[in-house]
Amino acid sequence: MSERRAILAVEDKLSEAVSIKILEDLGIGVSQSLGLRGKGYLQKKAQSLNQTAKGFPVFMLTD
Amino acid sequence: MPQLEQLEFTRDPATGRPHLQALYSHWRPNAGLQREDQFSDGTLRLLGLLWSLFESDSLLLLEEPELSLNVGIVSQLAPFISRMQRNRRRQILVSTHSDALLTEQGIDGREVLLLTPAREGTEVKVAADIDEVRVLLESGLTVGEVVLPRTKPSGAEQLSLLE
């Protein structure tokens, strides 16, 4: 079985570490980390990431 | 050139040595006259960059043209180089670590090579050949947002542990 992978979109390094751990527990690898520029950046890019999610799994963590 | 009102080639009357002389914007007339040994590093680099771009039509390799330049100028480099290349049908290769340079929306993932250090040497991949990169670029993200994070050296965070 091929490894499941996802693109990660996060606000900061802490969210990145937490997300990697969550995905790891679900058996999903991270193929690409995006963001690390705060919540505003993710909000601005949400539409593009939604579009991306049609072709590739995206995991976004924000609060 | 930002802040430069005039740039000219002069020759030292005593020694005969050639010089560049620039007139910077200044509230006192003629107070802003400077020679190349008084130019900032960024001004010298930008002059060198423009010189290289206008100089000939042969293959040009630019290594990190963003060095010492203001982000506002760096963000204009990609479209500027593209226009220069289009008019002269010239091949220009640029290496960069700059987010500002790669944030230009018009940069195509098919013209970007991602160089990654590997065990047996450097691996080279066309950015758009990487599935998730291609999908992200097609969704409207820029090469700077998508490709640069992939070049981060592993263990770079260790630097923050040093005291």
Radius of gyration of chain B (CA) equals 20 Å
CATH class of the largest domain in chain B: Alpha Beta
Mean pLDDT of chain A: 93
Radius of gyration of chain A: 11 Å
How much helicity do the residues of chain A have?
40-55%
> Pairing-aware structural class of the strands and helices of chain B?
alpha+beta
Number of domains of chain B: 2
N- and C-termini, Cα separation of chain B: 41 Å
- Distance, first to last CA of chain A: 34 Å
Specify the overall morphology of chain B: elongated
Main sheet strand line-up of chain A:
2-1-3
Biggest protein-protein contact in the assembly: A-B, 16 and 14 residues
At a glance:
Chain A has 63 residues and is α/β, with parallel strands linked by helices. In chain A, 44% of the residues lie in helices and 30% in strands.
Notable characteristics:
heterodimer, A: 63 residues, alpha/beta, 3-stranded parallel β-sheet, 30% strand, B: 163 residues, alpha+beta, Rossmann fold, two-stranded parallel sheet, 7 strands
Protein model, in words:
The complex is a heterodimer of chains A (63) and B (163). Chain A has 63 residues and is an alpha/beta fold. Chain A contains 2 helices and 3 strands; from the N terminus they run E-H-E-H-E. Chain A has a domain at 18-57. Chain A is flat, with a radius of gyration of 11 Å. Chain B is of the alpha+beta class and 163 residues long. Chain B has 2 domains: 1-39, no CATH class; 40-152, P-loop containing nucleotide triphosphate hydrolases (Rossmann fold, 3-Layer(aba) Sandwich), CATH 3.40.50.300. Chain B has 5 helices and 7 strands. Chain B has helices spanning 41-55, 71-88, 99-102, 131-138, 143-146; strands spanning 4-11, 18-24, 33-35, 60-63, 92-95, 113-118, 121-126. In chain B, the strands form 3 sheets. In chain B, strands 1-2-3 form a 3-stranded antiparallel beta sheet, with no helix packed on it. A two-stranded parallel sheet of chain B has the order 4-5. The A-B interface holds A 5, 7, 13, 31-34, 36, 45, 47-49, 51-52, 55-56 and B 131-133, 135-136, 138-141, 145-146, 149-150, 157.
